Each structure stands twice: as C-alpha cells, then as structure tokens.
Amino acid sequence: MKKAMWIISIFCLVGTALLLQFMPESVPMHYDAMGQIDRWGSRYEQLIVPIIILVVSLFWTTLILYYEKKAGKAGNISDAASCEEKEAGVPSNEAILEKEKAEALSNARALSVVGMANAAMFTVLHGFLLYGAWDAANVQSTAMTIDVSKVAGILMGIFMIIAGNVLPKSRINGSFGVRIPWSTYNETTWRKTNRFGGLALVITGIVTILGTLLLTGSYTAPLVLATCLMIATVFILIYAHKVCEEEKKAG
Questions:
Q1: Is 189 in contact with 183 (CB distance < 8 Å)?
Q2: What is the per-residue pLDDT across 100-157, written as a single tens digit (0 to 9) for each?
Q3: Start-to-end C-alpha separation, the chain
Q4: Using H for helix, E for strand and C for coil, what is the string for the chain?
Q5: Which residues contact 146 (CB under 8 A, 6 or more apart)?
Q6: Which of 203, 204, 215 is nearest to 147 (CA)?
Q7: Sign of the torsion angle spanned by Cα atoms 179, 197, 117, 144
C-alpha cells in the first residue's frame, strides 16, 4: 500500500506534466457557487494539486515509518530480552514486547491503506478537473462543463467508507483514530469506540454518495458530508463516554 501510494502520487505529477502540453495556455482555475468560471490562469497552475498530493503522501509515509520503526525496535528488544531472561532464569516479557510490535505494525498497515486511498481519491478528482479545464478552454465556456462537485462527493463518500473499515484495525496511538480520553482509557474502550466510529464513517460515506447522486447543487456534497460527520461525532462521543463509564464500574 505504501508503494502504491507513491506510484499513484508520482503518476499524478508526471501525467499532469505531460497532459499540460496539450492544453491551451490559459485555462479555468476557479468557479463560483453557481459553477461559473470566475478566474482563468496559466495551465501550469494545474501542477499545484499533484505537488500537494506528494507532500501529503510524504506526511503519511513519515507516520508509517514511525510505526514500522517502533515495531522493529520492539522486536529487537524482545529478542534480546528473551535470551537474557532465559539465561537468568526469570519470567520472560517477550509476550508484552510482541504485543507492542503487533500493535505498531497494525497501525502502520492501517495508515498505509488510508494514505493510498487518499492519494487515489485526489488523483482521480484532479483528472476530472484537468478534463473539465481543457474542455471549457476549448469551447470558451463561461461555466464548468463537468459537475466536479458530484465527482468530489462520490469520491469523499468512498474515502469515508475505506477509512471506516480501517479504523477498527487501529490500536491505541497518538496519531489517528478516535483519540479522546474516554476512548484511550484502556484497550477495550479503544476497540469498542473505534469499531463504532468505523461504522459511523461507513454510514457517513454511504449517505454522502446517495445525497450527492440524488440532490442537486454545487455545495450539496460538502454540506451532506459535514452534516453527517457532525452527527456521527456526537454519537461517537456519547458512545465513548458510555463505554468508558462501563469499564470504570467494572474496575
């Protein structure tokens, strides 16, 4: 997944650079709420998005490498500690270190999936933006010729579904997931809260896709997504508090 993320990111930059050679010098760069073109700019401004995708991929890679390094360190300590403790005849802490290694690897894999999905989503969206800009410039249109907002809504919905499926696979960490005091109380509260949060994200994604397809308007998709996320956040907080209180009562 980490390699796929970089392949997609580099493909987006190289592909954009090649396609720009076939585009007019001036292309639409911004649209108003009604989908009307309100700014034209140089075709080379289209390289901004691929560069941003590369920077974001670098961010995801940094996090992934952190957890991979953490897993490797736990594995090395486990091997060394196991030999020393066996020689000394004391109980081994190997199981604890192996658990830490497994958790770090799980987080690295989850971040790899999210990073790859993120790069793919923005690359596809950028492809539609490029085509729309090329088409509008060729016919000298005053408005967008492709409803990019619908494409964005569908892609955001798909990303939410992928993120929702990945969230339950995460382990307690300080980088991603539902990270609040109630969810990080112990492993049980983390597991239950993030499983519930994952389900909420999947539902959010499905509703966003349906809302984008069924409703009209340039800002329909962002509004549906924002509304669903706010509702989901409220329910996640309520559920996390409930689970945490149950764990505290259980000792």
A1: yes
A2: 888 889 999 999 999 999 999 999 999 999 998 888 888 888 777 788 888 888 999 9
A3: 40
A4: CHHHHHHHHHHHHHHHHHHHHHCCCEEEEEECCCCEEEEEEEHHHHHHHHHHHHHHHHHHHHHHHHHHHHHHHHHHHHHHHHHHHHHHCCCCCHHHHHHHHHHHHHHHHHHHHHHHHHHHHHHHHHHHHHHHHHHHHHHCCCECCCCHHHHHHHHHHHHHHHHHHHHHHCCCCCCCCCCCCCCCCCHHHHHHHHHHHHHHHHHHHHHHHHHHHHCCCCCHHHHHHHHHHHHHHHHHHHHHHHHHHHHHHCC
A5: 128, 131, 132, 135
A6: 215
A7: negative
The count of C-alpha atoms lying within 13 angstroms of the C-alpha of 18, restricted to the half-sphere facing its C-beta, is 7
Predicted TM-score (pTM) of the model is: 0.82
Tokens of 153: 């809504």
Chain position carrying tokens 């809504």: 153
- For the record, the structure tokens of 73 come out as 């360190």
Joined tokens for residue 141: 């249109």
Nearest to 129 by CA among 219, 48, 217: 48
